[in-house]
Amino acid sequence: MVKNRRFENESSGFGIRHVQIFLLFCALTVGFAMRVNLSVAVVAMAEFPEYDWSERIKSLLLSSFFWGYVLTQVPAGPLARRFGGKVTILTGLSVCSVLTILTPLCARLGGWQLLCAVRLVEGICQGLLFPSTHTVISAWVPPKERASLGNFTYAGNQFGTIIMLATSGLLVSIGDWPCIFYASGAAGCIWSVVYFLWGASSPADSKNISAEERELIELGQASERSAHAELPSHQQTTPWLSFFRSPAVLALVAVQSAYAYGFWTLLTQIPSYMKNILGKDIKANAVLSALPYTAMLVLSFLFAWLSKLMQRKDSISLSFNRKFFNSIGTWGPMCLLIALGYVPRHMDSLAVMLLTLTVGISSASHVGFLINHIDLSPNFAGILMGICNAIANLMSLAAPLLVGIVVTDKYDANQWRIVFFVAAGVYLAGNGLFLIFGRTSVQPWDDPPAKQHSNSATELEAQDGNEK
Fold it and tell me: Alpha-carbon distance 452 to 449, whole Å?
């Protein structure tokens, strides 16, 4: 397909693709609200004797979601390609929403054991979310809009967390802890109905898109499409071995794993550090708890805007753009994390500021590695996200395990500094590999050969041609 410079250079305006991106943003918002609701509800539940569980049981409940979440990361990509991203996203979040509404009932009937099983299934359902979202973004968003629209989509992660943290106190005052689950589950059900009516896996599936906008998207993606890529996904061979032989993909796995390890070290362990070392209990303060996520949300839009400005300059390559912002999003927190370990006890306000900046600056990676899967392979972006996210989530589970090994005395600042140094080293190595081996060009294996079907119409036509 020949590029049309008129469509490539003209202002895109608001279109159906923006509606689809907004719906994905809402999907991640309700998804993350349902993901963190138990974290805030378990505090209110502890006021009732039947829910006054031990710390071990609470850890099992909170981690059960993520064990289920890891299970469906890799299968989610092929499922989204086969049935469409809309189908997999809608299936996962609608089931998760219903289970969320039923959570209080399950807790009353089956105790922590049934609640743990429900959270495991919810994790399995939400494991479909990120790979499917990447698949839909790849289909709907032209290359020049990936940074801005991709960033807006994944800003739903922080927005959903902020909303849940900010409203949890109000919801508990209205109808006690079950209201936290009823509200987040109901929001998910409402979103499911809206997405069923208005969502679409691709421009070809949309009944509302104009011919002009469809052409704009197709022309924007023309340089990344091949003849094979136009075939239905079930007729394409997925190059699994090529994924793991590609230095660019392995670098992406490394940087996404490093980001996940550092991010979850910050959000799960820093509150304990600040309480035990600095005497600042940020978990007990809803405003302070939401502050890092708020900074992350605001700064993510700033970095997306700067990335878009840089992308308009011909002298700045896309590769430099991605790696520049990814370095800010990983090496910036690396330096601040080390500094946080040396803040004196009496300067707890400085520690809160550093924590907020550390989490906020990490959002620069949203226009770095987070959309690099689509750069490397528009055709298999969802599968790549599933692979990378599965490994990254396993890495994030290592963060609390390391703290348990290293921090034998939770009041010893030197032991906590070792935790910070390890996280900083992981940040350093992960982004270093991305700088050296990371790529932004479409990889050769993105052009897959068609699967052979012995009874296919194509093969029959070929046989007829040979007989003539």
Answer: 9
